[in-house]
């Protein structure tokens, strides 16, 4: 299983740390700056990479279509204000359609906007 990061931007240090915390066996994420042409694009991508876990930055229609279609993926939530270094700190990681917990579950949290370290909130299965 690979971890895929769908975004035009590189992962921040906090996002990298969260992925290491949540996918302890992972040595890195494969970046794919894919652009979706329609609202089904994300769901189609996730299904084409069914053996991998996808983290994504996309528009609301893409998220909604993929979530309602039962796709499993992750999203990052940033703190609302930029730090002095110009970076938004990572606030939380959510998994959509996590099998054991429901449709949306917060799996990683960082209450300190100045820090890149957070904590895993759930037991992490080997196939996450």
Strand arrangement in the largest pleated sheet = 4-5-6-7
Q: Please give the number of β-strands.
A: 7
The tally of structural domains comes to 1
Report strand %.
25-35%
SS class: alpha/beta
Please, how many helices?
A: 3
Low-confidence stretches: none
The helical percent reads 10-25%
Average pLDDT value? 90
Sheet of most strands: 4 strands, antiparallel
Order of helices and strands: EHEHEHEEEE
Categorize the overall geometry: globular
C-alpha Rg, in Å? 14 Å
Distance between the termini: 9 Å
Description:
This protein has 128 residues and is an alpha/beta fold. The protein has one domain. Helices cover 21% and strands 34% of the residues. The radius of gyration is 14 Å and the shape is globular. The model has no long low-confidence stretch (mean pLDDT 90).
Q: Which tags fit this structure?
A:
4-stranded antiparallel beta sheet
Give a summary of the structure in a few sentences.
Helices cover 21% and strands 34% of the residues.
Give the topology, please.
Elements lengths: L2 E4 L6 H10 L6 E4 L8 H8 L4 E4 L3 H9 L4 E10 L5 E11 L3 E8 L9 E2 L8
Parallel strand pairs: 1-2, 1-3
Antiparallel strand pairs: 4-5, 5-6, 6-7
């Amino acid at each position: 299983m690979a971890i895929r990061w769908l975004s035009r931007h590189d992962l921040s240090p906090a996002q990298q740390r969260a992925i290491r915390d949540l996918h302890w066996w992972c040595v890195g994420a494969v970046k794919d700056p894919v652009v979706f042409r329609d609202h089904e694009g994300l769901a189609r991508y996730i299904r084409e990479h069914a053996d991998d876990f996808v983290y994504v930055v996309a528009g609301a229609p893409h998220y909604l279509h993929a979530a309602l279609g039962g796709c499993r993926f992750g999203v990052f939530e940033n703190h609302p204000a930029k730090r002095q270094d110009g970076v938004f700190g990572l606030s939380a990681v959510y998994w959509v359609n996590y099998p054991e917990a429901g449709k949306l579950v917060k799996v990683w949290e960082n209450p300190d906007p100045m820090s890149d370290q957070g904590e895993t909130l759930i037991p992490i299965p080997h196939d996450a």
